[in-house]
Design a protein that fits this description.
With 336 residues, the chain is an all-alpha fold. The protein has one domain. Helices cover 70% and strands 1% of the residues. It has helices at residues 2-20, 40-55, 61-82, 87-105, 127-144, 151-169, 177-195, 205-225, 233-239, 241-256, 269-275, 280-304, 309-325, 327-335, and strands at 23-24, 36-37. The protein has a two-stranded antiparallel sheet with strand order 1-2. Helix 6 (151-169) packs parallel to helix 8 (205-225). The termini are far apart. The model has no long low-confidence stretch (mean pLDDT 88).
């Protein structure tokens, strides 16, 4: 149902978006051709609402609050798609949405798990600010990785599959139908985005990437912090590995250069790969494959030596940061 709703909305909203000017036009940082409708996120959001309307009596109250607060990010992203908002306005909206979610559901990061093999690490009074920081960070990580066709949507599907895989490996049987509905609604968008011609091509837009990133992040927090949790907190890092390490690495590099961490540039991993000679589809396949491989690595570590999950992820981040800081060498090697 979600897939069919998304497909129908894509067909109906494409001419509407062109008529009202909800399109993305090329500039110095956006090298696509023509004006492309920014409706991918709208169709995914509509499909989610249809899911709630049909199954609301069976949906947990916490999920209803999740979608209500996620709607704030969707609306701010939609406004940003029409006319760019300041990063401060976007940040305030995200903090307010995350804070409201915590207030009404009490879902927050109260434990980091056994990160180093020396026992559980409780967050105490830092639980609320740490949760808000995590939500804002991962939400924007999905937004920032939406730089080539299909990447944000594909990484979202990997994350959704990973959450289910980690739960299944731990013997859990959670109610994640809402997450499956979002995943199903993402598929038609990806087909239009990656394979659509000039008349059918659409972009996800900030409304979509912020909405999806927010829902995935709070789902991860809930699944790692519930009393019967079967996903360890460190394992959550593998679920969003590529968006997370890419965003942190780029921001650290900007700060070290004396720049604002929010200053846009073309130094994300997908940009580096394309400068090295990869086509957009080639970079998409490589990054989606890498994200899937990291999930499998995380599952293997979780099943055999969970105390090594965080150290192993830290090594992955160090490797990525080296790649970022030595990008020119990597580009030369890949070209040869």
């Amino acid at each position: 149902m979600a897939c069919a709703t998304s497909l129908t909305a894509l067909l109906l909203l494409t001419p509407v978006a062109r008529a009202v000017g909800l399109v993305d036009t090329p500039n110095s940082r956006k090298l696509h051709e023509g004006a492309v409708p920014l409706i991918g996120g709208i169709t995914i959001f509509i499909s989610s609402i249809v899911y709630l309307l049909f199954f609301a009596p069976q949906v947990h109250d916490k999920i209803l609050v999740l979608f209500a607060t996620a709607s704030l990010l969707f609306l701010s992203g939609l406004m940003d798609d029409f006319k760019p908002l300041s990063w401060r306005m976007r940040l305030v909206t995200q903090v307010f949405a995350a804070g409201s979610m915590i207030y009404f559901t009490d879902i927050k990061i109260e434990s980091l798990g056994d990160l180093f093999g020396f026992g559980l690490i409780e967050t105490g009074m830092l639980s609320v600010p740490l949760t808000i920081l995590a939500v804002v960070g991962i939400t924007n990580a999905f937004n920032l990785c939406d730089g080539i066709d299909g990447l944000a949507g594909s990484l979202a599907l990997v994350a959704i599959a990973a959450i289910i895989a980690f739960q299944s490996s731990g013997g859990g049987n959670p109610d994640l139908d809402f997450l499956l509905a979002i995943g199903a609604a993402t598929v038609p968008y990806l087909l239009f985005n990656i394979f659509g011609n000039q008349n059918r091509k659409v972009f996800l837009g900030d409304a979509g990437s912020l909405f999806i990133g927010y829902v995935i992040c709070f789902t991860l927090i809930h699944q790692t912090q519930r009393e019967d949790a079967t996903i360890q907190p460190a394992s959550a890092l593998w679920v969003v590995a590529i968006p997370l390490v890419d965003t942190i690495g780029v921001m650290v590099r900007r700060v070290r250069k004396g720049q604002s961490p929010f200053q846009p540039d073309r130094n994300h991993l997908h940009h580096i790969l394309m400068r090295a000679g990869f086509s957009p589809k080639g970079a998409l396949v490589l990054l989606t494959g890498s994200a899937s491989s990291l999930v499998l690595l995380g599952l293997a570590i979780e099943g055999s030596a969970p105390q090594w999950s965080f150290p192993a992820f830290f090594l992955v981040f160090i490797g990525y940061y080296w790649l970022l800081t030595h990008a020119w060498r990597v580009q030369r090697l890949l070209k040869h």
